[in-house]
Amino acid sequence: MVEHRASAELDSTFFALADSTRRAILRALTRRPATINEIAKPFPVSLNAVSKHVMVLERAGLLRREVKGREHYCWIEPRPLREADEWLEYYRLFWEQRMDALEVYVARKYRGSRRRIQHGKDR
Amino acid sequence: MEKTGDVRHRIQVRRKIPVPREVVYEAWTDPEGLREWMCPGDVISATATLDVRVGGSFHITMRSKERVHEHVGTYQIVEPPAKLSFTWSGVDNPNEITLVTVEFLDHGNSCELVISHERFTNADIAERYEMGWGTIAAKFSSYLNENLNRAQRPA
Lengths: 123, 155
Known about the structure:
Chain A is mainly alpha-helical. Chain A has helices spanning 7-17, 20-31, 36-40, 47-59, 79-122, and strands at residues 34-35, 63-68, 71-76.
């Protein structure tokens, strides 16, 4: 569950996702694995820059790479994304559920206190 | 990678409640009240000790059938009946310190609650992040997961 998740790993996931080029690279890799040359083609930046982005994604565990001869093949690793998502969704649900319960609790309490005030006035 | 700034991943939950904000504020600061609504869903019981003042700490224990969730934190802002802010971390994961801020907006006989839950991390690109970033990350990852699921499904 969320509590067991090492925060350093989550940090690197969020860090990696904070850049639009890196998000575009991941998006392209959801279609199929690709070499670094293929990944770099649509971007108006140098192969070297793309290579650095790939390294950041790799360190965050979002991308895996295999070297075959002179080519580096890359594919997406979905696990860290699911876990980053999990933190956010866990606490969204956590607070939504508690707000449901809070609403019921305060409504009951408020009705009770008004009744007491009303009752007090009658007497 | 040298890390300098604080990065926020933020969840925001808003809720309108047809009860004056003083009553809602009390439900957050009275341990008897808190344990009543801190145990929804599969949580069977909750206990709370609260020292509601700036620098005071709290300890909330929620028991479900499978396990016990314990959370601790320290109050950072105490402004009755308008605002509460406290750090929040799980006892079994003390390194992950997060910040919860609860605003009680006054609408006369009703109240709007705004809960912001932020996770702080260090990263050297803090200025590029803005509020709502958490939601963007969540949306983006579910988008990717959807595509992946589609790609992995046999044709």
